[in-house]
Amino acid sequence: MMEAFASVEDAAAQQLVHGVIDGVCGQDPPSFSGIATGLSLQQWTSTVNTLTQAIEKQFGRENGTEEVVKALEQSGLPSAKGAVVRACLDARSNDLHKALIRKACAVGEACVVDFDWDVRLAVSSSSMHTLKIPLVHLTLTLQQPSGRREDVHVELSEEELDAFLSSLNVANKRVQALSA
User: Fold this and answer.
1) How many domains does the chain have?
2) Which segments of the protein form a coiled coil according to its record (predicted)?
């Protein structure tokens, strides 16, 4: 797929990669007539799509730039052009991180706008006379983009609460690492 990209001069290749990064970041993507690459329309489209997919799928990983270049090399990117792609990704890494965070945050439409909690003690059930199990009752108030609010009620045992808090801590650390 990326073999045709080898024939593109480095300056045009750099311009094309920056244009693809612009598109990933929510700006105008590159236009076929705007960059003189010498590629046919089919080669151009294939190259732009391959670059876009590799950047969106691989850049958020731990060694994002290297992962993108490796994925592109598996798609036929010549190693000489890998340096051009690497330089562009390094130069625009902050923009890409911010764009990927925005996309990740946009996955869910509803946002938590308030919460409330209380601890309850389950003292018996239909099968056991004495339980004495502490339960946390968590109420999350979610707001939809339309402005409509709804409450979600969750009841968690101590073990479930610990697992829930651990997963929130892991998610928080990952978000902070991406925003750093």
Assistant:
1) 2
2) none
Q: In terms of domains, do 116 and 101 share one?
A: no
Domain that holds residue 101: 3-105
Q: Say how far apart CA 144 and CA 158 lie, in whole Å.
A: 30
Q: Please state, as a whole number, how many other Cβ atoms lie within 10 Å of the Cβ of residue 17.
A: 25
CA dist., res. 98 & res. 136, Å (int) = 35
Query: Same domain for 13 and 95?
Result: yes
Separation of alpha carbons 80 and 83, rounded Å: 6
HEC profile of 127-154 = CCCCCCEEEEEEEEEEECCCCCEEEEEE
Q: What is the CATH number of the domain that holds 130?
A: 3.10.450
Beta-strand (E) ranges in 60-159?
111-122, 133-143, 149-157
Are 36 and 86 found together in one domain? yes
Q: Whole-model pTM?
A: 0.60
Cα 29 from Cα 127, distance rounded (Å) = 63
Local confidence pLDDT in tens for the 180 residues of the chain = 688 888 899 999 999 999 999 999 989 999 888 888 888 989 989 999 999 988 888 887 767 888 888 888 888 888 888 999 999 999 999 999 888 877 776 656 788 899 999 998 877 766 666 777 888 998 989 888 888 898 888 888 888 889 989 998 998 898 888 877
